[in-house]
Design a protein that fits this description.
Blueprint (H helix, E strand, L loop, with lengths): L1 E5 L4 H12 L3 E6 L4 H11 L3 E4 L13 E3 H11 L4 E4 L7 H9 L3 E4 L2 H7 L8 E3 L2 H10 L4 E8 L9 H4 L4 H4 L9 H9 L1 H14 L4 E5 L5 E7 L4 E5 L5 H9 L12 H4 L18 H6 L4 H16 L5 H14 L8 H16 L2
Helix pairs in contact: 1-11, 3-4, 4-5, 5-10, 5-14, 14-15, 14-16
Length: 358
């Protein structure tokens, strides 16, 4: 077996390589962003046939004879690759084109790039998608084709879950990156603080499991990742450590019958508690029901959100100002309905221009 790995130097990528090494899976190609030093270590360890990086200026630093650059470079690698599986761990809208290319070629995609389904779920063949989000993996693990009545995923609550609302108005970009449970990339950590990340995961679940009957609750320990409520009235939960190697192993192997993680220490957990996601702390949650019933509007939320994060990073808006930008754009573009990928691309551009002018 062999894979193409997009986003090799991020946490998902690093964990994917650990699993690849464990099961002797060939890594045909590596795609990274700016962390050239780590990429070079990965090249030395896995000897990929091709690599791609984000910027031309870094090409000379890469210890490889076949270095591609940017989106075009990534797409050319996917097109030429013999591997049947592409692991897409890219961050943001950048990950959409590779997902589309891979699925159009009939390749399976082990998907950690939320934005692919959020933006264009209607135009992606779900039969070729295996999620490597812990929440969606948990749902899949629990369901076993039994009839369910409702799905739940959990949220940590993000960096400001314990902050006073008044204090949150003055929160900085650096404050928002201080996640209480783990260390992740900038964008996903900001999205966790605003709960946009969880809204995206609901949209992903809508496309993956063909249901809008899904919700999220806060579980601060991040020990439970998903719950399924069945039509018979029973509810079961997926407990697991916070470690992406488990869903990655299943995505690459199909079935795993040996220990990947140590089992959860039930006595060490202590009390478990759940809390609702409140709109006062997470204003984006006000559109949850509407967008689950109009999932094509994911392209609007994603584009406006990426613009808003940049504005917050540059101190051009406040923490809550990010949600204001997204909700304003969502109302403005509420009637758009993309009928093709070309429409998605055009709407994305229009939303970004609108949000940047707010």
């Amino acid at each position: 077996m062999s894979i193409v790995l997009l986003g090799s130097t991020g946490s998902i990528g690093v964990n994917t390589l650990i699993i690849a090494q464990r099961y002797n899976i060939e890594v045909e190609a590596l795609v990274a962003g700016n962390n050239i030093d780590l990429l070079n270590e990965q090249i030395a360890a896995f000897a990929p046939k091709t690599v791609a990086i984000a910027h031309e200026k870094d090409r000379a630093r890469v210890n490889h004879s076949d270095v591609r650059v940017g989106t075009e470079g990534i797409l050319s690698i996917i097109e030429e690759a013999q591997s049947p599986t592409v692991v897409n761990a890219l961050v943001g809208y950048t990950g959409l084109a590779p997902t589309l290319k891979a699925t159009q070629l009939g390749k399976k995609v082990a998907l950690a790039n939320k934005e692919s389904l959020v933006v264009a779920g209607a135009f992606i063949n779900m039969d070729l998608i295996t999620p490597i989000d812990s929440e969606h993996f948990g749902l899949w693990y629990l369901m076993n084709d039994r009839p369910f009545s409702k799905l739940y995923i959990t949220a940590s609550g993000g960096a400001f879950r314990e902050w006073e609302l008044e204090k949150m108005k003055d929160a900085t970009f650096a404050d928002a990156l201080k996640h209480p449970n783990w260390s992740m990339g900038d964008k996903i950590t900001i999205d966790s603080a605003t709960m946009t990340n969880k809204l995206f995961e609901l949209l992903e679940a809508k496309w993956l499991f063909d249901t809008a009957n899904i919700d999220a609750v806060i579980e601060k320990q991040s020990i439970i990742h998903a719950l399924v409520e069945f039509v018979d009235g029973s509810t079961i939960a997926h407990f697991a450590g916070v470690d992406m190697k488990l869903p990655i192993a299943f995505a690459l192997k199909g079935e795993v019958s040996e220990p990947i993680l140590p089992p959860v220490d039930l006595l060490g957990i202590g009390e478990l508690s759940f809390a609702p996601i409140e709109e006062a702390r997470y204003p984006i949650w006000s559109i949850k029901e509407h967008i689950l019933n109009n999932p094509h509007l994911g392209v609007v939320v994603n584009a406006a959100n990426e613009v808003a994060i940049e504005a917050f990073k540059k101190e051009q808006c406040s923490f809550f100002g990010m949600s204001d930008i997204v909700l304003d754009a969502y109302r403005h573009f509420e009637d758009v309905v993309p009928n093709s990928i070309e429409d998605v691309v055009q709407i994305d551009e229009e939303v970004r221009a609108y949000a940047a002018a707010l």
